[in-house]
Design goal:
The complex is a heterodimer of chains A (533) and B (363). Chain A is α/β, with parallel strands linked by helices. Chain A has helices at residues 56-63, 86-91, 109-114, 123-137, 152-165, 182-197, 209-215, 238-246, 260-269, 274-301, 349-356, 380-383, 391-397, 409-422, 439-451, 469-484, 496-502, 521-529, and strands at 18-27, 30-40, 45-49, 71-76, 79-80, 94-97, 170-174, 201-205, 218-223, 226-232, 308-318, 324-334, 338-343, 364-368, 373-376, 457-461, 488-492, 505-510, 513-517. Among the domains of chain A are: 1-6 and 13-93 and 169-177 and 201-247, P-loop containing nucleotide triphosphate hydrolases (Rossmann fold, 3-Layer(aba) Sandwich); 289-372 and 453-529, Rossmann fold (3-Layer(aba) Sandwich); 387-450, no CATH class. A six-stranded mixed β-sheet of chain A has the order 6-7-8-3-9-10, sandwiched between helices. The radius of gyration of chain A is 25 Å and the shape is globular. In chain B, α3 (48-74) runs parallel beside α7 and α8 crosses α10 (234-261). Chain B has 363 residues and is mainly α. In chain B, 76% of the residues lie in helices and 0% in strands. The chains are: A alpha/beta (533), B mainly alpha (363). The interface between A and B is medium-sized, with 30 and 25 residues.
C-alpha cells in the first residue's frame, strides 16, 4: 500500500527500472500532481490507473520529458535523473506511445521510423531493421506501407516498432486499447507480456479494470494527483481498484469544482473512521434528497412539457475508422430533466452525444429527435463559434444553413443585445469580435444562442471545461434553468462530480455499452470502470 | 468612418510604399531614379486621358480577377486559377462573338459576356470536382489548370478561332455591334469599367447582407463551426464559391475581349490572374476595397509601360515591386495583429481538405 521512499535502498537489491518519488505539478491554480510516486521493476507490465484528471498522463509526460515536474525526484536504474525532453528520455531507453500518434501520414512506415533518427538516412537498412524488429516482436508491419493507408491498430504497431528501433527498453503506452478493436487489443496486450518476458518494461495507462488485471504484474492507482494504491495484480480485484480510484464510497464534496482536491486528499491520507463515514453518507443522502425535492418543485411549478422527447432504440455507431464506438444503445430522455452522461475517455460518449444532438446519423438503430436540438460541443473554438466574427454574427450563425434571402442585421443585433443582457455575457458591445471574450463569456453566449428558442433538447459536452469557478456556476445555473423551463438537457462531463451535481438521472457509457445507473458516485464510478457483460 | 479611411488609405499607403521600393530598386540597378519615376507617373496619371485609357482600363481586368480571388478566399477556397478562368472566359466570349449574328445588338453583347462568365465557372468547376471527389487541393489544381488554359488559348488562336488569313496567332476582330460601348468618347474607357465597379459593390453587398454571403463568410472563417453550429452544407458552399469565383474571372476575360482588345490573343493577359491575388490581399479580401487596390496595381502597370518606353527600365521591375508590396503588407498585417488575411491564407493550405472532410463527417 505504501511506496518505499527509495532513499534507503539496500545495496544488494537491484534498483527499480524507474522510481518516482513525491512528484508534483501544478498548472495555474490546478494541481495536476501532488506527491505522486511510482516504482516500476525491470521486466514487468505495470498498470497505471485513475479517473479522468487523476494525473496519469501528466505523470507519464514527466517521465517522457514532455513536462517538467515542480518537485520530486525521478530515478532511472537507481540514478537520480532529470529528463528534459523526449530525446533525453530516449537516451535512457524510455519511449512513449501517446493516444494521438506522432506519425506523418504521407510517409511510409520505414520513412516514419527513420524520421528523427540520427546519422544519415539509409532506408534500406531501416526497412531491414523494421522487418527484424517486427519479426522478433511478432508485430506484423509492412515497412513500405504508407501510414495513411494503415488502420489505427497498425499505426499503433508502427509507433511501437519506432520506439523499439530506438532501443527503447521501457515503453509507456497511454490508453493503447481505447482506439482498438477487441481482437487488436488482445494482440497488443499479448505483445506487452512477451516484451516484459524478454526483459522489457511496460507502463500501461488504462481504464479497463478487467484488461488491467489480466495483463499487469503490478498496479498503481492515482487519485487527484496522488498515489493512493499499489499492489501486485494477483492481490487486487476490480472492486478494490474501483474503490481506490473513486475514493472512499459515499464521500460527498461540498462543491464539485472548488475545494475538491483538498477534501479528497484528506480522505485519502487519513481514512475516515466509521463514524465519520456514516456522517458523510447521511449528509450525502440528505443533500441528494433536497436536490431532488427542489428539482421536483421547480419542475412542477413551471410549464414543463410532458413525455419523451428523445428516443434512441438499439443504436449502434461505427466511426470512420471502422471501429464500433457504440453498441445497441437505447436511451429515452424526457423533457424537464437533466440526463447526465458519465464515461471514461473514448468509451463512445463522443459519438453517442453527436447522434443525440442530431449531428450524425447512427449506423444502426432508430433515433427520434425533435427538430430543435441545441448543441454545445466540447471544442468550442472549433465547433461552436467563429473567433474572427462578431458576437452578432456568431448569434446569427445558428440556423444559417436554412436561412434564405436577406440578413436582417438589426434583428440579430437586438437579439444579441438581449442575449448579452439575460446571459450576463461581458463584452464591449455586440459588435465585439468573439476572440476578445473570455472563455466563460464565449460559453455563455453559446449556451444562450442554443437556448434562445427554448429548444426541446439541449446537448452539452464538457460545458465548463477551461472556465473559472464563477463562469462554471453561471453555466450550471443556465442548464438548470433550461431544465426548469422544460428543455430536456443532456450533460456529459469528464468530471464525474460535475455530472452528479447536475443530473437528475445518469447513464453510463462503458466500452460502447450504455446503461442507466443510480445517480450516486459509487454506482456511477463502478459502472464506468467495471465493465460487465 | 474607419471603413472609408481604410478604403482610401490602404491603397494609398501601398502606392507610396511601392514607389519607395521601386526608387530603391532603380537606384541599386543604376537607373536614373527621378527620370524613371516621372515616366512612371506620366504613364499612370500624366493626363486625364492617360488615367482613363491607361490606368483605369488596365485596372478593370485586375478588378474582375481580384474579386474572383477575394470571393474564393473569403470562403476559404484558395483559387489561384483566376488567370486560367479569365483566359477561358475570353476564349469563350470570342467564340460566342463569332457565332452570334451581329444584328442582335445589345442582346448579342450580353450573350458574349455571359458566355465568358459561364465558361470561367465551368473551368473552375473542374477544380471543384477534383477537390470534392478526389481530395485534390485546389491550390494545385487551379495552378495546373492555368497552364492548360494558356495552351488551350494558344491552340484556339492557331486553329478554330484563328483569323481568316491564317497568318497571325490571334482571332478575327469581333463585330462592332458586339463591342462594349465607350463611356467617354475619345478615351478607351468602356462600359466594362462600370460593370466591374458595380460587381465590386454588388459582391460587397452580397457578402454583408445576404444569407448566402453570410454562409460563405462563416464557412471561410471556421468551416467546422459553420457545419456544426450553423447547419451549413460546407461542401456545397465551397463548390458554389469556387464556381462563382471562376465565373467572375471569366466575365473579366470576356470584358477584356469585348471592351479592349476586340480579339483573342494568346498573351491576352499579362498575368492579370496572378496580380489579382495581390489586388485581393491588399483589399483584405473586401470586394469594395478591391476597387482601390486594383487602381493602384493598374497605375503601376500602366506606368511600367511608360517607364520602359521613356526610361528604358524593364517593365518586369514593377512585378518585383508588386510582390514586395504584398510581402510588406502581409508582414505589417501580421505585426499589427490584424489576422484576417493571414488566417484565411493559413486555413487554405491543407485545412481546406480537412474542413471539407470534417464537414462531411458532421453533415
Amino acid at each position: 500500500m505504501v511506496i518505499p521512499s527509495g532513499t534507503h535502498r539496500t545495496v544488494n537489491a537491484p534498483a527499480p527500472r524507474l522510481a518516482l518519488d513525491g512528484i508534483s505539478r501544478q498548472y495555474g491554480s490546478v494541481i495536476a500532481l501532488a506527491a505522486a510516486s511510482l516504482s516500476v521493476e525491470r521486466g514487468e507490465v505495470h498498470a497505471l490507473l485513475g479517473e479522468n484528471g487523476a494525473g496519469k498522463s501528466t505523470l507519464m509526460k514527466i517521465v517522457y520529458g514532455l513536462e517538467q515536474p515542480d518537485g520530486g525526484t525521478m530515478r532511472v536504474d537507481g540514478v537520480i535523473t532529470q529528463v528534459r525532453s523526449p530525446r533525453d528520455a530516449m537516451r535512457q531507453g524510455i519511449g512513449m506511445v501517446q493516444q494521438h500518434f506522432a506519425l506523418v501520414d504521407a510517409l511510409t512506415v520505414a520513412e516514419n521510423v527513420a524520421l528523427g533518427g540520427s546519422g544519415s538516412l539509409d532506408l534500406r537498412a531501416t526497412r531491414a531493421r523494421i522487418r527484424e524488429i517486427s519479426a522478433d516482436a511478432g508485430l506484423s508491419i509492412d515497412p513500405d506501407a504508407r501510414v495513411s493507408s494503415l488502420a489505427v491498430g497498425a499505426q499503433q504497431r508502427v509507433e511501437i516498432v519506432k520506439a523499439l528501433s530506438r532501443d527503447v527498453t521501457m515503453l509507456i503506452l497511454d490508453e493503447p486499447t481505447a482506439v482498438l478493436a477487441p481482437q487488436e487489443a488482445t494482440e497488443l496486450l499479448a505483445w506487452t507480456r512477451r516484451f516484459a518476458a524478454g526483459g522489457g518494461t511496460v507502463i500501461l495507462i488504462a481504464h479497463k479494470l478487467r484488461e488491467v488485471l489480466s495483463v499487469a504484474d503490478r498496479i498503481t492507482v492515482l487519485r487527484k494527483g496522488r498515489t493512493v494504491y499499489t499492489s501486485r495484480a494477483t492481490d487486487a480485484t476490480e472492486s478494490m481498484l474501483a474503490d481506490a480510484m473513486l475514493g472512499a464510497a459515499g464521500v460527498v464534496l461540498p462543491d464539485p469544482v472548488a475545494g475538491a482536491t483538498t477534501a479528497r486528499a484528506t480522505t485519502a491520507r487519513t481514512p475516515a473512521g466509521p463514524a465519520a463515514e456514516t456522517a458523510a453518507k447521511t449528509a450525502a443522502k440528505t443533500a441528494a434528497k433536497t436536490a431532488v425535492e427542489t428539482a421536483a418543485r421547480t419542475t412542477g411549478s413551471s410549464t414543463a412539457r410532458v413525455g419523451d422527447v428523445l428516443v434512441l432504440s438499439n443504436v449502434s455507431i461505427t466511426d470512420g475508422q471502422g471501429v464500433q464506438r457504440v453498441r445497441d444503445a437505447s436511451v429515452t430522455v424526457r423533457s424537464g430533466e437533466i440526463l447526465g452522461v458519465a464515461a471514461v475517455e473514448g468509451a463512445g460518449q463522443h459519438e453517442l452525444l453527436r447522434v443525440m444532438a442530431g449531428r450524425t446519423a447512427p449506423t444502426h438503430g432508430s433515433v427520434t429527435l425533435p427538430s430543435d436540438v441545441g448543441f454545445a460541443p466540447e471544442d468550442r473554438h472549433r465547433d461552436a463559434i467563429v473567433l474572427d466574427a462578431t458576437l452578432t454574427e456568431n448569434v446569427a450563425l445558428k440556423g444559417a444553413g436554412r436561412r434564405q434571402g436577406i440578413m436582417h442585421w438589426n434583428a440579430f443585433r437586438d437579439a444579441t443585445r438581449t442575449l448579452m443582457h439575460t446571459r450576463d455575457v461581458r463584452a464591449s458591445d455586440e459588435a465585439a469580435v468573439m476572440q476578445t471574450l473570455s472563455g466563460g463569456n464565449q460559453q455563455k453566449l453559446v449556451l444562450g444562442r442554443e437556448l434562445a428558442d427554448a429548444p426541446a433538447v439541449l446537448v452539452v459536452e464538457n460545458p465548463t471545461r477551461g472556465l473559472d469557478i464563477r463562469a462554471t456556476a453561471d453555466v450550471h445555473a443556465a442548464l438548470r434553468s433550461a431544465r426548469d423551463q422544460g428543455t430536456a438537457v443532456i450533460v456529459y462531463s469528464s468530471d464525474l462530480d460535475e455530472v452528479l451535481a447536475l443530473a437528475d438521472r445518469v447513464i453510463v457509457v462503458a466500452a460502447g455499452r450504455v446503461r442507466e445507473v443510480p445517480a450516486d458516485r459509487e454506482s456511477v464510478g463502478r459502472a464506468m470502470l467495471v465493465v460487465t457483460g | 468612418m474607419l471603413r472609408i479611411t481604410r478604403l482610401v488609405l490602404d491603397p494609398l499607403l501601398a502606392g507610396v510604399l511601392s514607389l519607395v521600393v521601386l526608387a530603391a530598386l532603380l537606384a541599386v540597378s543604376g537607373y536614373p531614379v527621378a527620370d524613371s519615376l516621372s515616366a512612371l507617373w506620366r504613364g499612370a496619371f500624366g493626363s486625364w486621358s492617360v488615367i482613363a485609357s491607361g490606368t483605369v482600363v488596365r485596372a478593370t481586368p485586375l478588378l474582375f480577377a481580384g474579386l474572383a480571388v477575394a470571393i474564393a478566399f473569403r470562403a476559404g477556397v484558395l483559387n489561384i486559377g483566376a488567370e486560367g478562368q479569365l483566359l477561358i472566359g475570353a476564349a469563350a466570349a470570342t467564340a460566342a462573338a463569332m457565332l452570334v449574328p451581329p444584328s442582335l445588338g445589345l442582346a448579342g453583347a450580353v450573350f458574349v459576356l455571359l458566355a465568358g462568365a459561364v465558361a470561367g465557372g465551368v473551368w473552375a468547376s473542374i477544380a471543384a470536382v477534383l477537390r470534392l471527389r478526389f481530395g485534390v487541393l485546389e491550390v494545385i489544381s487551379t495552378i495546373m489548370l492555368n497552364v492548360i488554359a494558356l495552351n488551350v488559348t494558344g491552340l484556339l488562336v492557331r486553329g478554330p478561332l484563328q483569323e481568316p488569313t491564317r497568318v497571325f496567332p490571334q482571332s478575327a476582330l469581333i463585330d462592332q455591334a458586339l463591342r462594349l460601348p465607350r463611356l467617354v468618347p475619345g478615351t478607351r474607357l468602356h462600359l466594362g469599367v462600370a460593370l466591374a465597379v458595380c460587381s465590386a459593390l454588388g459582391l460587397a453587398w452580397f457578402l454583408r447582407y445576404t444569407a448566402s454571403g453570410f454562409r460563405l463568410r462563416m464557412t471561410g472563417a471556421n468551416a467546422a463551426a459553420a457545419a456544426s453550429a450553423g447547419g451549413i452544407d460546407v461542401p456545397r458552399v465551397l463548390l458554389t464559391a469556387l464556381i462563382t469565383s471562376g465565373a467572375i474571372a471569366g466575365l473579366g476575360g470576356a470584358v477584356e475581349v469585348s471592351g479592349v482588345t476586340y480579339a483573342l490573343y494568346e498573351n491576352l493577359s499579362p498575368g492579370y490572374g496572378y496580380t489579382a491575388i495581390a489586388v485581393a490581399l491588399l483589399a483584405r479580401l473586401n470586394p469594395a476595397s478591391a476597387i482601390g487596390s486594383a487602381l493602384v496595381f493598374g497605375a503601376l502597370e500602366a506606368g511600367a509601360s511608360a517607364m520602359q518606353r521613356d526610361a528604358q527600365v524593364p517593365a518586369g521591375m514593377v512585378g518585383v515591386v508588386e510582390a514586395s508590396v504584398i510581402l510588406v503588407l502581409l508582414a505589417s498585417e501580421w505585426l499589427g495583429g490584424r489576422v484576417r488575411v493571414r488566417r484565411s491564407l493559413n486555413r487554405g493550405g491543407t485545412p481546406l481538405a480537412e474542413t471539407a472532410r470534417s464537414a462531411q463527417t458532421t453533415a
